[in-house]
Write the structure tokens for this entry.
Amino acid sequence: MTGPIHLDDRYDEPDQLRDQLRRILRHRALIALGLILGLLGGLALAEYRAHTYTATGEVLVRSSADPFGTAGVSADNQVSMTTEQQIATSEEVARRAADALGVPDSQAGGLAARLRVTNPMKSRVLRFEFTAGSPQRAARGANAFAAAYLADRKGRNDAAVKRATGALDQQIQVLNKQLAQDELERPDTKTAAQSQLYNLQKRVLDIKSRDTDAGDVVRKATAPHLPAGPGLRTLLALGLVCGLLLGLVLAWLRSALDTRVRTVGEVRAALRAPVLGFLPESPEDKDDELLKVGRTGGARTEAFRALAFRLRNTQNPAGAGHVLVVAPRDAEAAEEVAANLAAALAEYGGEVLLVDADPDTSDLTHRLPLMSYESPTLEEAFLPNGSILVDADVAGRFAFRAGAGHGLHARMSAPAEIGRALPNADSSTVVVTGPFLGHADALAVAQRVDGVLLVAGLGSTRQDELRQVQELIDCAGGRLLGAVLDAARPRRRLWLRRRPKHRPAPHTTALMGLPAQDGTLTASRR
């Protein structure tokens, strides 16, 4: 085989948009949380708006033209609706409305805050919208503000008429006084004064004859039948939409901050090495048996066989020789892969040795189906020094050897012992040790084997951990063969932690025996 076998990655697609959408949909709980929050927000808003009513009244603003120089100006241009709109919301109008409603002047500002005055485009109509807690109060408030505005505008118009006629009346009084006292001796001067008096009196009559009414109420506010704003269904739909957007944003942020590996492509990019195996979650895999190959069936068992096939046929320098199986953090993942890889290699024939380099933290001694020393075929089988046979049922048998003793001194001497044992072994050797990032001896063992097989948990191993392992192996001069991606590791790890501890059988405590001079196996119990 000239290169790594491409795996069908069900978690990776070339389309980046689909990949991003898939990342977001992994966090369905956050999306559901956003929907729930949006629904609750819509219900809260509907409850709040259920007791809010808005009544609307309309006033037609009349034009009160300036009697001095407004000839030829249209009525629409004689009224500034923007100015009238500002006056309608002024404090003076609010005080008049408060008096009409029987509210103290100190609360006039609160009434003005619930008023909204608008002007429809290209019209001289002011629309008064008043919001209150009941339909009747909303209608009374709108009508009160409309009447207060008209009263205020009429007062301003009357004041303008009074100011305009006041100066003319003074001039008329002066002329009348002169004519009554015959102060004008010349006839032409007297005629001019009489003409001027007539014009002033005419102008006063013209000003007083103008209509000073502020306007007319063209639409009186009535009590509304429904609350203000959209209905319950609209608010719920709006809340669901906003909640969905919130959930998608939260899911996107969670996916952007999540560094755990989710795809084969992420593992390849972090390690710069191929993914040699994918271990699916098998529904049949429910028991506590570590060794699957040769004893059980299912997709997971076949994945172990496929991994052994790829290692046997690879053209890497390691071949199927001495392979270290290790995980960044999870030792149980490496134990399961190492044991089943050894059984799968034994199915192809030949001699296979499984070495446990870290017995202090490993549970392989208690979980493997070790054969007793009274087996009739023990002397005829391949059995390196200090090892014992493991019964893989239909897959055959392979040898298992644990590290030398316990404690800190044993762990420090384990890499050197493994380095002395490997060159003398003509078989395929699978070495398993503790977590790579948690035990320094794993790096020392990686220097003495032909290649390293890294076990990564889908959804549990982080990308920075994979990059750190790859950098350490490169710096140590080791060779990273590839990775095994375990899709069932998060669930299996939590389940295995709840399993009861196994008590070692009498024949499994003598794994460090050495062959005696007569060729029999002498066991030393630890």
The CA atoms of residues 60 and 125 lie 5 Å apart. The two ends are 44 Å apart (CA to CA).
